[in-house]
Design goal:
heterodimer; A: 355 residues; alpha/beta; Purple Acid Phosphatase, chain A, domain 2; 7-stranded mixed sheet; 6-stranded mixed sheet; 8 helices; 15 strands; B: 130 residues; mainly alpha; Cytochrome Bc1 Complex, Chain D, domain 2; two-stranded antiparallel sheet; 5 helices; 48% helix; globular
């Protein structure tokens, strides 16, 4: 959970890149209820071990940059969320290296489990570093719930693969037909019901998960098998926001009282599922896509975000490396999250057209 | 040329069939040949073999999405000229995979091109489109 309780080595090298960073990125909406605050959200760093003490440089750079930039935020965020997939293949070497980079953050950290962190040892070493797989906490009038949404069928997890390494590799391939759909599972849903039972319906709820908690494209696990059941537990609350990682792209949606926002990866961008000619998938129609990535610029279409919570509603500010930043905020007039600049189709620009 | 002529004459002498009289069995065999090369391409796609850092094409291009084979040849602004797809494949091998270029006629390049084309089947050609 809160990493500052866990006594990591403080690492100072990661902030060396600070010279070029923007420092006044926050558009805050303070002054209403004394309950507004911000937090930073970093996700999907996929730290990948090569051998010895070598790691894939590209992914290391993405995470270091996010940590360095988040440290320069002004006003200071109250805490940071890491949204899962810190590691690529869940090894101790990868998790340690990632945790060491995260330890340079000057704020408390809440961590979310990703499938790349989980399927080698079923989250055991991750737990030593970051604590419980699922938990909740309250912050300035908002109830936060962290779920481990990357579980799957027991048969797949416990009986199908001869070694944990094989299981990890099979789940790590996004387009691998041997993978298995993510789910929160009955046990955790029961915990969620009990956790929320004591919370007034008017309390804003923010759910942090790795997978979408809505169904987008099963072939790439942009998907949570029991999404509807989880949504039904959240539905009675007036203001609910789900923030998820995994998809490495901007997505947002509104289902009943629940607003959905994805976050970007620091490692690499993914194509939108509908660009796969045989997917038959769609992304929520209200999403204005991120710009297509320029592969000649390795940090393009990656980034991190700071989240601005105003009267219990969320605005996600996407800090996009080497690209124009974006903001997707709840629009009270339309009752859904919208891009503050590009939502009107007349405002769209050519790089937002994916095919 | 000479070698080819001899081969052609030998073939004619050995059979009365005309060159374009292929059979269902031929079609199946040729399709199977394509499938097996495309499968090799898929294997390369998901393996770290083309690079030096363990990274694979599939990490960023699930199902070969975002490769747009139907748009080639096309102008690549970063190269400043019209390029073919194998040049961009090599670009991605050299950069995210920290590997070395494949020759355009390398069987592994053919396998990658076959896999990409297969995943993109049915999409109309749009040469030059960015």
């Amino acid at each position: 959970m809160r990493m500052n309780r866990r006594g990591f080595l403080r690492q100072t090298g990661a902030v060396a890149a600070a010279g070029v960073l923007p420092v006044s990125m926050v558009r805050l909406a303070f002054g209403q209820e004394g309950q507004d605050f911000t937090f930073a959200y970093i996700s999907d760093s996929h730290i990948q071990h090569i051998r010895g003490n070598e790691f894939v440089r590209n992914w290391d750079q993405g995470l270091k940059r996010a940590v360095a930039e988040a440290n320069l935020l002004e006003p200071k965020p109250d805490f940071v969320v890491f949204g899962g997939d810190l590691a690529q293949l869940g090894t101790k070497a990868e998790l340690d290296h990632g945790a060491e980079m995260l330890s340079a953050l000057r704020y408390p950290l809440y961590a979310v489990m990703g499938e790349h962190d989980y399927y080698l040892d079923l989250g055991e070493y991750w737990s030593e570093l970051f604590g419980d797989h699922y938990y909740s906490f309250d912050h300035k009038g908002v109830h936060f719930v962290v779920l481990n949404s990357v579980l799957t069928y027991d048969e797949w997890t416990y009986h199908r693969w001869e070694t944990p390494e094989r299981r990890m590799l099979e789940m790590a391939g996004l387009d691998n037909p041997n993978g298995s759909p993510f789910m929160v599972g009955e046990r955790q849903r029961e915990w969620l019901r009990r956790d929320l039972a004591r919370i007034p319906r008017t309390t804003p709820i923010v759910v942090l998960s790795h997978s979408p908690l809505q169904k987008i494209y099963k072939g790439w696990n942009f998907w949570t098998e029991d999404a509807e059941e989880v949504q039904a537990i959240l539905a009675p609350f007036e203001k609910v926001t789900v923030l998820y990682g995994h998809v490495h792209q901007i997505q947002y949606n509104q289902i009943g009282s629940i607003s959905f926002h994805s976050v970007m990866a620091t490692a690499w961008p993914w194509p939108y599922p509908e660009t796969y000619a045989h997917s038959g998938a769609y992304v929520p129609v209200m999403t204005v896509p991120m710009n297509r990535a320029d592969p000649f610029n390795e940090r393009d279409a990656t980034g991190w975000q700071f989240i601005d919570v105003h009267t219990g509603r969320v605005a996600a500010h996407y800090t996009l490396y080497d690209n124009k930043n974006r903001t997707v905020a709840y629009n009270a007039a339309t009752g859904r999250p919208e891009d503050t600049e590009y939502q009107n189709p007349a405002r769209r620009i050519p790089p937002q057209a994916h095919y | 040329m000479r070698k080819f002529l001899i081969a052609a004459l030998t073939a004619l002498a050995g059979s009365t069939a005309l060159a374009d009289e292929f059979t269902e069995a031929d079609l199946e065999r040729w399709a199977a040949q394509f499938e097996s090369v495309a499968q090799e391409g898929r294997n390369l796609w998901t393996s770290p073999e083309l690079g030096t850092n363990g990274v694979a094409c599939a990490q960023c291009h699930p199902n070969a999405a975002n490769t747009h084979p139907e748009t080639y040849p096309k102008f690549q602004k970063q190269l400043g000229r019209v390029a073919q797809m194998w040049e961009m494949i090599n670009w991605c091998i050299r950069n995210p995979l920290e590997g070395e270029d494949l020759a355009p006629g390398d069987p592994r390049m053919t396998a990658l091109l076959a896999y990409i084309a297969k995943e993109r089947r049915g999409v109309p050609l749009e040469p030059g489109k960015h």
